[in-house]
Design a protein that fits this description.
113 residues; ADP-ribosylation fold; 4 helices
């Protein structure tokens, strides 16, 4: 099976929920969050963490995880602002299914404050 490495910047609150799920799933979206958007490269994840999450939350984490590539092929890569600024847009109602295609565990690879 082929996998794709994805990244997601998360706050402490979201990280705590991931830990409660044994590092195997992202928590459901809130009503005002219709899209779950993992990113395709570390530099973009780091940028979101440092520029947006740290000012908003004081501390933020970059997570890394693997997802079945065949499953991911159903989602179009969304470029949201230039070279390397690529995301996948997973509708909130599909997040449980998305989580079932995570291979292994979600890991924290960086912490920023």
């Amino acid at each position: 099976m082929s996998t794709t490495t994805l990244y997601r910047p998360v706050s402490q609150k979201e990280l705590d929920l991931i830990a409660q799920a044994d590092w195997k799933a992202f928590p459901p979206r809130l009503p005002e969050q219709p899209i779950f958007y993992p990113v395709l490269n570390l530099e973009y994840a780091r940028r979101i963490t440092v520029e947006w999450n740290v000012p908003a939350y004081g501390k933020s984490y970059v997570t890394k995880f693997e997802v079945d590539s065949t499953y991911l092929s159903r989602f179009e890569v969304q470029n949201v602002g230039g070279e390397g600024i690529d995301e996948l847009w997973i509708p909130a109602e599909e997040l449980t299914e998305f989580n079932s295609y995570i291979i292994g565990k979600i890991e924290v690879i960086e912490t920023h404050q």
